[in-house]
Amino acid sequence: MNKQDITSIKQLLSTKKKIVIVPHKNPDGDAIGSTLGLYHYLLKGLHQVQVIVPNDYPHFLKWIPGNDSILKHDSQTKACNALINDADIIFTLDFNAFHRTGNMETVLTESSALKIMIDHHQAPDDYAKYTFSDVSMSSTCEMVYHFIDMLGDADLVDSAIATCLYVGIMTDTGSFRFRSTTSKTHAIVAKLIEKGANNNEIHNNVYDTNSYERLQLLGCALTNLRVIPESKAAYITLSQDELQKYDYKKGDTEGVVNYGLSLNGIVLAAIFIEDRKEGIIKISLRSKGNFSVNEMSRAHFEGGGHTNAAGGKSYLSIEKTVEKFISILPTYNKALNNE
Questions:
Q1: Domains, the chain, ranges and CATH?
Q2: Which of 45, 80, 107, 312 is deepest in the core (most CB within 10 A)?
Q3: Single pTM value for the model
């Protein structure tokens, strides 16, 4: 985003506007943190602001400041569509293609509102009037901080904004251990703590709220863990029956794929989760080094994301999906064994 864009946006926001902020479907910590962080900032300009999420999100994110103001499109469709159709500006955060919003795709595409994209994923679409896209950033929350700073309003960051942005940076960097975490990331985190983000409390709220059933499900997932040593790969499966057995709640499988990646010598990890309601197998892929799961997911599983973290889907059975995954691994063996 260049200086001219920033000047134009600053002028645009100098008068009261009706603004809608939207993240991707199945929003995670970065999606909720960035949308609510921007929400609190825009409220300071006396704008009429509404965060609309495509669907529900994990319980361990529902303590974040501003959570109670969020509307869910799948259960409040009429009200959400009215707000979108009446909006002057729509901010799209943590995604860069409308299909990532599920059933919101049509209403967003048809909306005449000016669109502003803030996102760190690869290959953005060109729907936005103003695009702030940077794949080198650790998270969209880090980008929102930069966005506020570029507008000259870093002094307006308070404890609510700082808390929201800290959540997204923490979760999207794997608690600051992924290589997307840079010295600039840490510098911003330091500023957020200075502004009132309680890092200990935030970490506990996100990571230390396990239910008994969630830990039982984790045990099931680890029992299902399989390793393919010649490909330096590991994978986990969870069927719908297994999810139901352990009273699965949205967010219960968050981070489980990383257990496969934590194995000594493993470069590629995957988790395959059956979703009978949607009729798909949800896929999460993680990698180390320069091996791109973004490219693998785009080529084989109708997905994408980042070099070391991507998602996808399959319309095959969970067994056939695993067979497909195993069958394509030899194609990548050279790259995997070079890491």
A1: 3-207 (3.90.1640.10), 212-337 (3.10.310.30)
A2: 312
A3: 0.89
